[in-house]
Amino acid sequence: MAYQPNNPLMIQSDMSVLFEVDHPDATTIRHVLSDFAELEKSPEHVHTYRITPLSLWNAAASGRTLEQILDLFEQYSKFDIAPNVIQEIRDQFDRFGLLTLTREGDRLILVSQDPSILRKVFRFKSMKPYVAEWIDEVHVAVTASNRGRLKQDLIKIGYPVQDLAGYTEGSPLPFQLRESCLSGEPFALRTYQTVAVDSFYAGGSSRGGSGVLVLPCGAGKTVIGIAAAAKIGAETLILTSSVTAARQWIAEILDKTTVREDQIGEYSGAQKVIRPITVATYQIVSRNSGKAVQDHLNLFNERNWGLIIYDEVHLLPAPVFRVTADIQARRRLGLTATLIREDGLESDVFTLIGPKKYDVPWKELERSGWIATADCREIRVALEEQEQINYAAANARTQARLAAEANGKNTVVKRLLQKHCEDQVLIIGQYLSQLKKLQQQIQAPMITGQTSMKNRDELYHKFRTGAIHCLIVSKVANFAIDLPDANVAIQISGQFGSRQEEAQRLGRILRPKKQENQAYFYSLVAKNTKEQEFAMNRQRFLTEQGYAYRITEALPAESDQVTKEVNASIASLDAYRQKKRKLEE
Amino acid sequence: MLAQELLEKLGRQELQKVARFFGLKKRQYASMNQEQLIDALMIGYRDGLPSQLARLTRSEMDLLIFLCMATHAFDTGAELNDVGRVTNQRRNLHQTLQSLAGKGMIWMSRERWNAVIYVPEEVFVFLLHREAAPLIKKPDRSIVGTIKPKENYGLAAVHDLIHLLSAIAHGRIEVTQQGDIYKRQMKKLNEQCRLNAELFKNLYFDADYANIQFWKRYLRHCGVISIPLEHRVIRIKEQSLELFAQVTYLQWIIGFYDFYRERYAQIHTAPVPTTLCLALLTYSGQDWVLQETLYERVHEWCTQWNFYIDERMFNSLFYHPFLIFGLIETGIDEQGRAAWRWTDWGKAWVNLMTDTAVDHDVDLMTEGIYVQPNLEIMVPANILPVIRWRVETFAELKNSDTVLIYEWSKARIEQAAEAGWTLPEIEDFVQSYSRNPVPDNVLQTLRDWLDHYGKAKLWDVLVLQVREQEAAHLLTNKKINEFIVTSFSPTTVVIRRNDEMKLRTLMNSLGYPLPRTVASPDHPLDRSSFSQASEREMNQKTYAPGTLKQGFDREAMRGKALGIKKATNDLNDFDLDYPF
């Protein structure tokens, strides 16, 4: 193959594929490529895909042939392809189906047409405990309760198993999606949502039924989860990251499906109701109070669930990981926008929940108008003179805190509020003291971990209805909070360099807007401090999703006429309120 | 060398001798002047060469063919020593050579201490065609089934070379007294190399990190690096590097291959018909060919001329280097037999060798890089070397493959700034070669990194302090004043390090001799790299009582010097007067 400068694919010998997305045939190429390679990064111009054994087995399972892959490379590769890549793809295709796991009554049987493969596999010390009985040279009975761990260990030793043992159907719960919501608005799945559900369900066969869907925040993952549950038509356990998120799920299910209120239960700190559809929180199932953990984990076996949905699957806590390994007979669906775990356990998610079944670049949904267009800006705020002295003298940890709580940020927040006076603004921060100080200055309502659920729901409701246009939130609002009309987010501090947090926070404003589909994400960063480095790391995930950050510097407070005006107006407003209160008294 | 050039070097008598061999009658050439005689002989070279060659004796013909097919006699000349070493005609070699020279078939010149033999190009071309044509016409062995690609190293060789150069430029590569890179450093360098040491093992007796040794020797051979043994570090010669980076990959590869062959010849001295083999290679390989085909042809030819070339040597000299330099790729047919074909670079190389096209590799090169907002720079491996080198200046390599992935690095940007790069120059470079608009956050990050760079500086100076007020008048002395750069206080001044010896002499003459040691908050061991004076001081301290004990407790000493910790009794008489 000669060097083809106009072709868009660059295939690396480490099995990654670089893809120039500005190519005229980009859509066609992406369609095939995403079937056998996982999207790793999607910055503006060159996307990175990775071919993994799992992705190739999935491709083989979904009917892609080796020839189709090689043809794609032949037609669109810019450079010669390293022979090892072709060889590896061939090998993995050959391995697909080498080992299969089937069910025979209550027993699970590991089958291979080649006796030497089974002998090789069970020569590994780690594999020996799984053997229940050698039926013959090509059939080995394994213990059914170890299905998840067996699959994990087989992948570790390089022998993936095609799990054809099927799933427990679960107690039936037939329900449908409505054609119009309770509010009267018409409702139908979007094209990509239908594709996502279909790729998970796989026609009800054992090829589907377990996997992770990766979609941007605001792309309607909840709806996809509900649609998947409707398609399976069985009792469903949904695990979410917070009580608020759990209630949102319940509201969505009632709004968009024919499920009755008495069929849904909330299993949280507040109430523990188990019904055909139960929405629980990770906190309650993994609450660490001795025996209680085990009690709550029993929830997984409390009913004959046909589907378990893990919302925000990147947050999956360790006890749930363990339980998940034991419930491999049930269908499992993971939903996330950012499959980044700072503990590096992404691969465990794929093994225990299932492989990535669908993902789509954030920018692609933005272009189609399914999520809001986001304008991301980093605003650098200079430390005040005294702050600079304190910063220089502090130890590393304190320095991070001092930078996060720089006074200048409040001034910039005020300016931004003035600029977005007609928008729905979320102010997100890490430190309560900082948030409280800001609240005193701008007189906006605030939600923190200490705010009662009742107050939280009330404030969220007010924000959704537009009764309040600015809400200060701590990290409690990082995930799974549905505030569709929020279109401006101001991040005043964050958790060091957490990429996932930054992306989730941006996600709060990406829900499609009724009017102008535009969102603004401001990240305030103290200039010439460690926070600047953290910010660079935090932004990495979003830049890899194609978001461009514009970096500007905040003008010093004293030279800023607008700030003076804003300060004056806030001061006069404050004085007016106090005066009014006195008069009322 | 052309025949015309050869003839012009001959004297009248020698020309007449050649004329006799070419069949000219005495009455014909006796009346001709030198120029006319050369013109007449040139007709013989052009039109009557086959008949002239037919008149050579068997041993003359054998030697001539050997010279053409197995040495560089047609090109850069073959040294007599080498010819003697590898030919099997040792006994009559000189006699045969003299005879060939007398017949105008070779030219022997004395260069330095060795005789060098040249064959006229006309003779070489004729013989090459005569020897190679029948071999080329033989049918290829057929390949069974489809070929499964096995090895294709692409431009890994070029990558490794630049990686080594970059490591030398950005780090400090120390060498042993023999000029070899330390093994621990070679191990580190080897980690990012794409061609492993195993591939170069037939060039060195010690195969550990043979790849690094090969590149180091090649760079030294090209004059790009030097190893001044007194400093024991590898130095890059900037001007040579500048030239080196301007050369295209293909020319580098030619250099690599020549160097590889030379190195191989130092270890394996059996005769090989290199020219013939290369000619045969260039005529095949446009599509998959079985490796054994070519070997069989060459082997047949060698047997005819009493040569012996074994297959392993043949592979080591041709397929192996071509493979590692990215000129060929290999595969296996369905019967498990090895096959090969030229890559794009190989085809360009063949074109360059046979001179059938111009700009052989220009279509294979690119100038475009991808600057990504996540601070990555993606550089296709076929980038122009000079651009690649610039990217190395600013960014660190994260992954080397068909596309090299770099990441902007603060340390590298600062080094670049120290080397004289300014922010606008860096921005200009990126914007010129980026295939997409450079993301705003990348430019801002570069600005951030360079914003404070160089605003604070360290000066390497000495501080002169006088202890007592009555001695303070010394600092007002006119002669001492000449050395003073600035003063901290009336009793403490700053002088240049270079003026130390002059100042000592002056202070001696004024009756205030300075102690031999230069006081410092650090232990002399830590300062050993700064000056010779401190080295002397270190050596002196070695003999002082209780030194070892002090030497082991460095923290305590630093503590005392900086006044942080209470000094131990052992350190009481260790006078470290800290001036600042």
* Residues in helices of chain A, as a percent range: 40-55%
- Any guess at the CATH architecture of the largest domain in chain A? 3-Layer(aba) Sandwich
Instruction: Quote the CATH topology of the largest domain in chain A.
Output: Rossmann fold
Number-wise, the strands of chain A total: 23
In which order are the strands of the major sheet of chain B placed?
4-8-9-7
Largest sheet of chain B: 4 strands, antiparallel
Can you walk me through this structure?
The complex is a heterodimer of chains A (585) and B (580). Chain A is 41% helix and 19% strand. Chain A has 23 helices and 23 strands. In chain A, strand 5 (99-104) and strand 6 form a beta hairpin. The radius of gyration of chain A is 26 Å and the shape is globular. Chain B contains 28 helices and 16 strands. With 580 residues, chain B is of the alpha+beta class. Classes of the chains: A alpha/beta (585), B alpha+beta (580). The interface between A and B is large, with 34 and 37 residues.
SSE layout and pairing:
The complex is a heterodimer of chains A (585) and B (580).
Chain A: E1 9-11, E2 16-20, H1 26-36, E3 38-41, E4 46-50, H2 53-61, H3 66-76, H4 83-95, E5 99-104, E6 107-111, H5 115-121, E7 131-136, E8 139-142, H6 147-156, E9 161-163, H7 191-201, E10 210-214, H8 221-232, E11 236-240, H9 243-256, E12 264-267, E13 277-281, H10 282-285, H11 291-297, H12 299-302, E14 307-310, H13 318-326, E15 331-336, H14 346-352, E16 356-359, H15 362-368, E17 373-381, H16 385-393, H17 396-404, H18 408-419, E18 425-428, H19 432-442, E19 446-447, H20 453-465, E20 470-473, E21 488-491, H21 499-507, E22 518-526, H22 530-544, E23 549-553, H23 561-584
Parallel strand pairs in A: 5-9, 10-15, 10-16, 11-13, 11-14, 12-13, 14-15, 17-22, 17-23, 18-20, 18-21, 19-20, 21-22
Antiparallel strand pairs in A: 1-2, 2-4, 3-4, 5-6, 6-8, 7-8
Chain B: H1 3-9, H2 12-21, H3 26-30, H4 34-47, H5 49-54, H6 58-70, E1 78-79, H7 80-86, H8 93-102, E2 107-111, E3 114-118, H9 121-137, E4 148-151, H10 156-170, H11 183-191, H12 210-222, E5 225-226, E6 235-236, H13 238-246, H14 249-267, H15 274-283, E7 289-290, H16 291-304, H17 311-324, E8 328-332, E9 338-342, H18 344-354, E10 370-371, E11 376-380, H19 385-394, E12 395-399, E13 403-408, H20 410-418, H21 423-433, H22 440-451, E14 461-465, H23 478-481, E15 484-489, E16 492-496, H24 500-510, H25 524-527, H26 532-543, H27 547-552, H28 554-562
Antiparallel strand pairs in B: 1-3, 2-3, 4-8, 5-6, 7-9, 8-9, 10-11, 11-13, 12-13, 14-16, 15-16
Helix pairs in contact in B: 1-4, 2-4, 6-8, 9-15
